[in-house]
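Hello forum,

I keep getting stuck at the same step: I have a sequence, I want structure tokens, and every attempt I make locally crashes halfway through. Rather than fight my setup again tonight, could one of you with a working pipeline run this one for me? It's a single chain of 543 residues.
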Amino acid sequence: MLGLMQDRPLLISQIIDFAARYYPDVEIVTRTVEGPIHRYGYRAAHKRAKQVAEALQGLGIKLGDRVGTLAWNTHRHFELYFGISGLGAVLHTINPRLAPEHVAYIANHAEDQVIFVDLNLLPIVEGVFPHLKTVKHVVVMTDRAHMPAASKIPNLLCYEELIADKPGTLRWPDFDENTASSLCYTSGTTGNPKGVLYSHRSTMIHTMMSGHGAVIPLDPDTTLLPVVPMFHANAWGLVYGAPISGAKLVFPGPKLDGASIYELLDKEQVTLSAGVPTVWLALLDYCAQNKLKMSSVKRTLIGGSAVPISMISRFWKEHEVEVVQGWGMTEMSPLGTTTRFNRGERDLPDEERFAITAKAGRPVFGCEIKIIDDAGNDLPQDGSVSGNLVVRGPWIVKGYMKGEGKSQFLEDDWFMTGDVCKIESDGSVVITDRSKDVIKSGGEWISSIDLENAAMGCPGVAEAAVIGVAHPKWDERPLLIVVKRPGATVTKDDLIKYLNGKIAKWWMPDDVQFIEQIPHGATGKILKTELRKHFQSYKLPTA
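Reply #2:
Ran it on my machine without issues. Output:
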């Protein structure tokens, strides 16, 4: 017997409708690309999103067509999130930090019909435009006064002019909730990027679950600053979660330096922020150098790469800000686990509490996880062994666009994440490494993540990375690569002495190398591939 309940489709347009109806004057604040701060409420954003949809109809965009964006976190990008998907087209957020050949590749692979681009990112589109095979229109996300006098792209359109004469009265269309809503490509650190095609259903379920009180609490008392880019797994879903919860949104635009982020946190009295560790390291250092304290921030969500205990400690001890660590992937919309304290754990001493936060978190309801060996056999979840992490759930990819990467998809919908981890008996996930980064020494695994996190606690260390280097006896041994803080005099001996007793003796790096800058990819992750190239002729000391 079936239940007698209505079968209404879950559609992204319902989010902005809800926000406009029940939180009409809750602010969306933007540091614009042009410079000034822009403010309006959800009601105004709702109308302009409909104007976007009407303008797209005028350009011939229909259900299922892909529309690309190269844009920062701004109110106009927010409007595109709802205007494009609400119409039934597919929002394709393109990462402007990708190599030009990857930008061209994914725009062609997605078959984008229109590209919206922020003013200061226009040179990227101009550079690849001759190679774009399906793009019919390029829209610059600015007003007429700031439009470029000349461009290599013919018939450039102006965003504000494009929507100005539209009534904003469109009735959002109804369609199957499994219709594609948005498209993100993996960062392409090895090979070409692969397309992850989200549906309205998956996005709505992810949004409703991620804003839950036990995950990322959002409510009308929240002021949210998403530093995580809107081109990085849909800003971790936060730009959907805020309007559905009545939270104030603060968009940083293109300026992500410590001074600019601190100014917005302070002036807008931000209570929650989100971003990758490299951004927060710059902010913490800026505050320390200028003797500043974050006055309103209560917690920060950090993801994208492992968060060292030293950063967790600095946030709490210097600013009384609680760190929430999240783990996930573009393929997971992206949320899989977050820091979740069980009853009584918040009352633990600082160091014990920080140790819980330093783990990848506990699974979010709706995301099933387990670990398997290389033969596909289930492994125990008692913290005793590491294995290949696989996941499944209603917001997790079941295949890449156009059928690529089939080897990552197993029976019964399990997806191979490429991460190696332990799962403890209380459900805590401890990421050991990416499968391609784990160091195999004498038949045992050494976690480069654990080594990096330990080294980050050493005074004078700004950033640390660990790679495996060939060894005649042990197969591989760890090489620790360090960037010093400005003015620091930390040495190899200092680091080895600091690590002594904090890690297993046989994990101790065989050498330490200091460099000016560690390379990062388009989403802020350390590029181990580039480090391996840089040190490909390096030989470990024999003595």
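The chain has a mean pLDDT of 93. If your local run keeps crashing, start a new thread with the error log.
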